Amino acid sequence: QLSCLVKVVLLHGTPKDLDSYPKELLLFLSPSDYAVTGSCMQYFANIGKANLDVLQRESSQRKRLLLEALACLKIPGTEVNEENAEILGRLVCDLGGEYIRSSGGNLLRQLIQCESFRPDQEEAIRSVISSGNTTFGPPEEWSAFTLNELSGLIPVFDHSILQKIPK
C-alpha cells in the first residue's frame, strides 16, 4: 500500500513538504527523490525514525537503505560515532556485529529499539556490555535506573552479565 501511495505522491513531481508525510512513506523513496526537499542526512534521519519493520528484515530494500545511509554519512569502516548513530536511528538494527563491536557503546541507545537480533549482533552486544566501556558503565555498577534504560537489551544478556548486576 505504501509503495502505491508513493507513486501517487510522486505523480506530479516530488512535493516540497515530504517531511510532513508519514516516515514509513520515505522508505519507498530514494535519497535522490528526497533531494528536492533536503539533504541525504536529513532523509536518513527521517528514515531512522520510521518503522523499518514495514520492510522485511533481510530484504534488498532494507539492505540498500543501510548501504546508502552509510555512504551518505561517510562512514568508511565499521565504527559509528554517537552523532551518526542518532541519525541512523532504527537502521542500526540492521548493522552487523562487527559494527556493534567497533562502535563500543555508541549504538546501544538505538539498539534498544530493535525488535530482535541476529546471533552475531547478540554476541557483539554482550561483548560491549561486558567490557563496561559504555556510558552505562560496568554491570557491577548498574542501578534499577540503568536496567530500565537498557530494558530492550536485557533479553540478550547472558548469565555472566546478569550475575554481575547488583541486587
TrEMBL record:
One of its GO terms (cellular component) is membrane. It comes from the Eukaryota. The lineage of its organism: Eukaryota, Metazoa, Chordata, Craniata, Vertebrata. It holds the Pfam family Mesothelin. Keywords: Cell adhesion, Glycoprotein, Membrane, Signal. This is MSLN protein. The gene is Msln_0. The keyword Membrane applies. Its main location: membrane. InterPro entries: Mesothelin, Stereocilin-rel. One of its GO terms (biological process) is cell-matrix adhesion. Belongs to the mesothelin family. It is found in: Membrane.
